Each structure stands twice: as structure tokens, then as C-alpha cells.
From TrEMBL, chains A, B:
SUPFAM superfamilies: Homeodomain-like. The keyword Cell membrane does not apply. This is TetR family transcriptional regulator. It comes from Streptomyces albiflavescens. The keyword DNA-binding applies. Residues 6-66 form the HTH tetR-type domain. Signal peptide: none annotated. One of its GO terms (molecular function) is transcription cis-regulatory region binding. InterPro entries: Homeodomain-like_sf (IPR009057), HTH-type_TetR-like_transc_reg (IPR050109), HTH_TetR (IPR001647), MftR_C (IPR041347).
Length: 188, 188
DNA sequence: ACACCTGATGTCAGTTACTGTCATCGCGTA
DNA sequence: TACGCGATGACAGTAACTGACATCAGGTGT
């Protein structure tokens, strides 16, 4: 366990998820995470800005994927359909990762600080999507509202997918959730 | 400024908003807030769970009002219309408070930790609204999606209202934002 | 008038997240 | 083989937050 074992960052993320799951987020100290990863507390903070961030390593890549899919949707697609294309793209990333997602989500819902961090990541995604829509020529407040609606579908759809049986595909759940949103907003 | 001046809690909230505005959230210590309120750091933490919570004193009451209005909407009202009734009720609370809201929002958007706290308060509202809708007989995931849609309207509408001129009423902004959401989700 | 009770506050010590600074290590390169 | 450089360790310090206990002001009962 020398100073130069490879992938220090990944070892820290793995150790953190394990410990948060075993004894809870609050009952875990950063020093313990670092020790399990064969590193020191100071090095933890060189890789992650704080004790929460270690659980959200992939969020930037996920947002970029989402935004990219919206940006590259056909010009003719309506804003909500561009968002739908983004949801399709994002869903592919989660194929085969349901169990890992469940474990991670269980840790997050057990602690308010982690929920806060999750929410600001989702808000960042919403802002990125609104940007992408604006670049497609969508005006405000339509762009922000469409982005928020898309995130609502993602949030609700994600929870449904986690709770669902193994055969149920995320992309399908997302499509159905979006249809449901369209239904409930289609009054008056 | 003796030990028993009245309204210690209110004095702390006022001092905190002032200091966060003057020198920023991170550059303000809890000891400084307490000192300006004529109290000690320890007493601050008896009134507020942490350094962020002091800015969110009214959030529980606001949520209760929102939920109450949704609950008491006519039985015949569609879910989205019950939410609309809630938005109307909430809007009344903000009459005459635009300047205060601007000041507070400026402090919040300037700091990520405060944004996180704001987001979890809004998420709590969404959960409360979904509950209320379920009690009205709305099934899942329609209840959660309608609640999330309502919160999206509130978020976007609130920012529009803050940026708008003095004559523009929040209730009107909320109505227009909801109509816009209905428009963007009314495709295919 | 007096002792007593109670809730709010003060005091103090302790833990832990997080930061700044400098020393040290292992590896590649000239 | 000497040197440079990025990653890590070591250490001290700040501030958010907590627990335990003392103290104070005001009300209550006698």
C-alpha cells in the first residue's frame, strides 16, 4: 500500500461509498475513508472538495451527455422533444447499473446534506439544459420551464426505475413519465 | 443589551441577513452574527440548527400555506388546477415584500451552500404537495409529477417576479408561467 | 418577603471538516 | 546520474457544531 498505488481518486470514492453504507455518512470521518484507501485525510481533500463531493464524481459527465443530446436533437424537434432525446441518451448510461444506483441512492436519501448536494447537481443540469434550449432558439421563460419539466421527469423516472424490477428499462420508464407529465399538465 | 432582550431569534435572523449581505456568507462567522444580536455563538445554535438555517425561518409556514390551499381546492378541480390555487395563495404572502425578497435572494445566489439549502426546502415543498395531491385521490406518479411541475412554475415564476417592475404582481406572473409550462409540454 | 422552580443564556472543552504551508517521495528526463 | 515535477505526507490552524454544566431573570407558591 505504498505512496504510488494507481487510481487514488477511485479508491477514495469506493472506500467512501462502502463506509457511508456500512455506518452512515455522519458516523464516517474523512480520516477513516482516507485510511481505507491507503491515503491521508489531506490527500482526500486534494481529490474532492468536500466530504459530500466524493459521491458525485460522474455528475459532470452525465450533465454533458444530457446537454449534448439536447443540442444535437433535430432542428425540427420541439423543445420538449429535444429534452426527450436527452432522457433517452442519459438512460443508456444506466444500463446494468441498477444495483449500484440503488446502493448509492440509499446512502443519499439517508442523509440531508447528501440530498442537498444531489439537488444542486440536478439544478446545475437544469441550468445546462435551459442553456442548450436557448442556443436552439427557445425563448425565456419557455427554456427554463422546459428544462425544469425535463428534470422533474428525470427525478421521478429515476426513482421509479430504481424501485422497478430488473426487466424494466430506464428509457421506457422515462418515456412513460414524460407522457404522464404531459397528461397532468394538459388541462384548461 | 442585557441577557433578556426580547425576540432573540428575530435579532439573530436580522443580523445574519445584514452580515451575509455586507461581507458575504463565507466571510461571516457565527460568532459575529451572535455578537451583533447581543448574544453568544452557543445561543445562535440553540435557535438555528446551523449557519444556513437562519435564512429560512419562514419556509415551514410557506409550505403549510401552499399545501393547505391545494388541499382545500374544490374537489372537482384537476390536480394541476389545485396546484394553481396553491400558487395563488402563496403569491399573496409576497405582496409588499419584493425588495426584501430581492435582498435575500441576492445573498442566496451568491453562495452554493445557501443554494443547496434553498433547494432542499423547495424539494420538501414538492414532497408536501405530492402528499396533498395523493390525499385528493391522485395516483402516482401523477401526484409527484404534478407537484414537481408546480414547483418548477414557482421557481421560474419567483425569479421572473423578482426581476420584474414593481407593478407586476406575483400572482399574475405565476399564472402566466403555468400557462407557458402547459404550452411547452403540449406537443406530440 | 422569601425560597424555589423553570427556561433562556453564558462558559468551556472537545470533535471534525476543511485550508495553508512546507517537506518528502517516486518517476521520468536530460 | 543529477535534476525537476507532480503527488503525497506532516503539521498547524480556523471555524462550524455539540455536550455538559453554571448562571441568571422572571414567575409561583407560601
Amino acid at each position: 500500500m505504498g505512496r504510488w498505488e494507481p487510481n487514488a481518486r477511485g479508491r477514495l470514492a469506493e472506500a467512501a461509498l462502502e463506509l457511508y453504507g456500512e455506518r452512515g455518512y455522519e458516523q464516517t470521518t474523512v480520516a477513516e475513508i482516507a485510511k481505507r484507501a491507503g491515503l491521508t485525510e489531506r490527500t482526500f481533500f486534494r481529490h474532492y472538495a468536500d466530504k459530500r463531493e466524493v459521491l458525485f464524481d460522474g455528475s459532470v459527465a452525465l450533465q454533458e451527455l444530457f446537454v449534448k443530446a439536447v443540442t444535437e436533437a433535430p432542428e425540427s424537434a420541439a423543445p420538449i422533444d429535444a429534452i426527450a432525446a436527452g432522457l433517452e441518451a442519459v438512460s443508456k448510461v444506466f444500463v446494468g447499473r441498477r444495483e449500484h444506483s440503488r446502493q448509492r441512492q440509499a446512502v443519499i436519501v439517508a442523509n440531508a446534506e447528501l440530498q442537498e448536494r444531489e439537488l444542486i447537481k440536478l439544478a446545475s443540469m437544469s441550468a445546462g439544459l435551459a442553456d442548450a434550449l436557448r442556443r436552439r432558439g427557445v425563448a425565456e421563460p419557455a427554456a427554463s420551464l422546459t428544462a425544469e419539466a425535463g428534470l422533474a421527469v428525470f427525478k421521478v423516472g429515476f426513482e421509479l426505475w430504481i424501485a422497478a424490477s430488473e426487466e424494466r428499462e430506464m428509457a421506457q420508464v422515462m418515456r412513460e413519465s414524460l407522457d404522464e407529465l404531459k397528461a397532468v399538465t394538459a388541462s384548461g
